[in-house]
Amino acid sequence: MDLKLATQIGKCLSNKVRFQIMEWLKDPENNFPPHETLKHFNDGVCVTYIQEKTGLSQSTISTYLTNMEKCGLLISTRHGKWSYFKRNEKVIHNFVMFLK
């Protein structure tokens, strides 16, 4: 990890809602219902559920999640018309190690 990427990640995490999303995604089973189609969290949490939990607009959450994906904090998977996001534990670990 380099300073530029670490700075981008830091900027993403400086927003309270984005930080909360990362916390919620750490334990999706206890923070979100499973999607009615998949019934599991292997590919992450449906964007709709993330948006509903935050109470923010769909466009705001979409921007947040896209930015978090661009810096590597999240991994997205698409199933039909649904997008799912989960934490990228490898990048999170590398970020923590970089800070040490």
TrEMBL record:
Tagged with keyword DNA-binding: yes
Keywords annotated in UniProt: DNA-binding, Transcription, Transcription regulation
Domain of life: Bacteria
InterPro entries membership: ArsR-like_HTH, HTH_ArsR_DNA-bd_dom, HTH_MetalResp_TranReg, WH-like_DNA-bd_sf, WH_DNA-bd_sf
Domain HTH arsR-type: 1-100
CDD domains: HTH_ARSR
Pfam family, one: HTH_5
Record's protein name: ArsR family transcriptional regulator
Species this protein is from: Polaribacter marinaquae
Taxonomic lineage of the native organism: Bacteria, Pseudomonadati, Bacteroidota, Flavobacteriia, Flavobacteriales
